[in-house]
Amino acid sequence: MRGVLTLAGEGTRMLPWTRGLRKELLPLFDWTRPNGTPVLKPVAHLVLESLVEAGITDVTLVVGRRDLESVRRYFTIDRAFLERHADKRERLLETRRFYETLEGLHLRYAVQPRPNGFGDAVLRAAPEVGAGPFLLHAADAVLLERPRGALVRRLAEFRDAEGHDAVLLVRRVANPSRYGVVEGVADGRFEGLRRLRVTGMEEKPARPRSSWAATAVYAFSGRFFEALRTVKRRDRPRELEVTDAIRTLLEEGASVRALVLGARDGEWWSVGSPDGFHRALARSRRLLEAGPREWARRGPGRPSGRARQGEQLSARPP
Question: With b meaning 16 or more CB within 10 Å and e meaning fewer, what string describes 108-125?
Fold first, then answer.
């Protein structure tokens, strides 16, 4: 199974940080080493792990031209680094695990020459992905749950089981005008998650027609790339958005569905703004400190309790 991970755009909400560093490489707490020292991982690292746990073995990273070298450096195995620090065995534990993950991946790169929208970034991956189905995940936001990757896998399973052209992961938000807003009707359940038959979608509408916001996690058929190529840009003509292609699919009669992220299923965090990053970092630290008690309370694989909007579940257990 193939995946697309986007680290593109200029990140103007995070200036001046993003003049030289990607927001997707901002860190969150993940777990602790055996000596109790906390481990920080870049958001893009965490997302890649989720894709791998969902069964993906082929990943295309879409990056801006100026960021290609630094991103490639982080996602490249550096054996000389391991040799130089061989005496720091415990500190290298997670780096070694990450390198083992990279060894099992076919990692590709695609370049977005100019920041022309999320959809344009995804379209740059088309030559690498080919005509088959794929999973898409933006790397500046993370969905974590236990076991890691379970929700991402369910999106792909739902797509494949019923032959849908697009499956979105959505959540209810208080201020939908900040997001891609989904309209839909109840459509039963899939593996415990509420389903919606999607009837419409708008990008950051002034007057939202629903409170369902799309997270940046999708499962698409190969038909999606053709929709991106033929989309009619209306509201945001200078940028090609994923939302535009989903609207095109709907106009063509394609099968588009959504799974609803509930408080029992996981939490979604974005680091695309200073406040978002602050909340995500603080929440990840609180969950780290709660440790196994949090998982025991929520139950394996089915977290319970009411989460505040945008809060992220769990770190990976050691």
Answer: bbbebeeebbbbbbbbbb
pLDDT at 182: 94
The answer on pLDDT for 231 being more than 90 is no
Beta strands at 141-144 and 267-270: parallel, antiparallel or unpaired = antiparallel
Total H helices, total E strands in the chain: 11, 13
Q: Which domains does the chain have, with CATH numbers?
A: 2-298 (3.90.550.10)
The answer to whether residue 254 scores a pLDDT higher than 90 is yes
Half-sphere exposure of 133 (CA within 13 A, CB side): 18
Q: Nearest to residue 154, comparing CAs of 58, 242, 259?
A: 259
Global pTM?
Answer: 0.88
Q: Give phi and psi for 122, each to the nearest 5.
A: -65, -40
Residues 11 and 138 sit within 8 Å (Cβ to Cβ): no
Angle at the Cα of 43 from the Cα atoms of 10 and 36, rounded to 5 degrees? 145
Task: Provide φ and ψ at 309, rounded to 5°.
Answer: -55, 130
